[in-house]
Design goal:
eight-stranded mixed sheet, binds flavin-adenine dinucleotide, single chain, 7 helices
Length: 315
């Protein structure tokens, strides 16, 4: 596995770690299938990951309270259809099964596990292009020299189009910046995630509170802005007035791999037989990760998929 920077330090580090779409009823079935499968796989695997790696990803099932405005009828119908528990509460809808993880810890734990299983991670190693022979990649040109493998998977998030170059075909993935604020309380000021109008508050065990996030189409620009800081902070104060007397302890941004309809591309490349793509998970890449990993493994091994994956192909 190679990364041009430090592994797990881009979008997967920057996110909030909510293991659900914000308003799951707003998304097509191609998204729901992946987020639902991902959600279940987290519940089954986080204990084992903690035990084997010694790093606690802080998996918590505290639930999420979705506050108006949203269509309560549509939301409840969606929950019923997908057998997702929900309870009407404070004029909103509480989803008790929604969990979250602490991203920097999750990526550290995963990294350790990959290395324990014999995986090699090359950091500061940039993929620069492919050498193609007879419809196959024969070598990957990278900043540390040429590399060879039987199969290659592009998982470069917002940068996937750049990595694929002329082989990107009609891939529609672009960076969408998200800014986040972090506050620190002595103890968690709320028990569960609060969500209103795309803005959310996520409590961490040690009293840290995340406030996110913006959705900005500004190219590969990771700068944070005063405007976003004020807007997130002011909106958050409406949900949690105690934030008026506090100052953020950290402000950062990440570049999501934005895709139409939030539907990722997970497939074998139509022209190069040993090239695969797993990218474009946009706002829910952490939630979808276990499902995507299963699907990619099934593709590489020729195993049966959990459902029809033709809707995630590149044309
Ligand atoms: C503010 C914010 C909040 C979010 N909140 C959530 C949430 O609550 N729940 C959720 O499920 N998702 C959330 N997300 C989305 C989630 O973080 C992403 O969908 C996911 O992390 C994408 O993972 P990725 O591996 O595709 O991309 P990344 O994590 O960005 O990884 C791509 C990697 O490719 C490397 N790379 C790029 N070009 C090259 C090259 N040429 N050679 C070698 N390496 C290269 C990069 O260095 C990087 O490490 C959030 C994102 C943001 C920004």
């Amino acid at each position: 596995m190679l990364d041009k920077g430090a592994v797990g330090a881009e979008s997967s580090w920057a996110g909030g770690g909510i293991l659900s779409p914000l308003c799951p009823w707003d998304y097509p079935e191609q998204v729901t299938r992946l987020t639902e499968l991902g959600r279940k796989r987290y519940a089954d695997s986080m204990g084992e990951l903690y035990e084997s790696s010694g790093i606690d990803p802080e998996f918590e099932t505290g639930g999420m309270l979705v506050l108006p405005p949203f269509d309560l009828h549509v939301a409840m119908k969606w929950c019923e259809t997908h057998q997702v528990e929900c309870v009407e509460q404070h004029g909103g809808l509480f989803l008790p099964e929604v969990a979250h993880v602490r991203n920097p810890r999750l990526v550290q734990a995963l990294r350790k596990r990959v290395e324990m299983l014999g995986g090699r991670i090359l950091e500061g190693c940039e993929a620069l292009g492919f050498e193609v022979r007879s419809g196959k990649i024969s070598r990957l040109m990278a900043s540390g020299g040429a590399l060879q493998a039987d199969q290659y998977i592009v998982t470069a998030g917002a940068w996937s189009k750049q990595v694929l170059g002329e082989y990107a075909l009609n891939l529609e993935i672009k960076p969408i910046r998200g800014q986040m604020l972090l506050f620190k309380f002595d103890a968690p000021p709320i028990k569960h995630i609060l969500l209103q109008d795309g803005m959310y508050l996520i409590p961490r065990r040690d009293g840290h509170l995340l406030v996110g996030s913006t959705l900005e189409d500004v190219g590969f620009d990771k700068q944070v802005t005063e405007e976003a800081k004020l807007s997130l902070w002011q909106h958050a104060q409406i949900l949690l007035p105690a934030l008026r007397d506090m100052r953020p302890v950290r402000h950062w941004s990440g570049l999501r791999p934005g895709s139409p309809g939030n539907v990722p591309v997970m497939c074998r490349h139509p022209h190069l037989e040993n090239l695969y793509i797993n990218s474009g998970h946009f706002r829910y890449g952490v939630t979808m990760a276990p499902a995507s990993a299963d699907i990619m493994l099934n593709l590489l091994e020729g195993w049966q998929q959990p459902f029809d994956i033709s809707e995630y192909r590149l044309i």
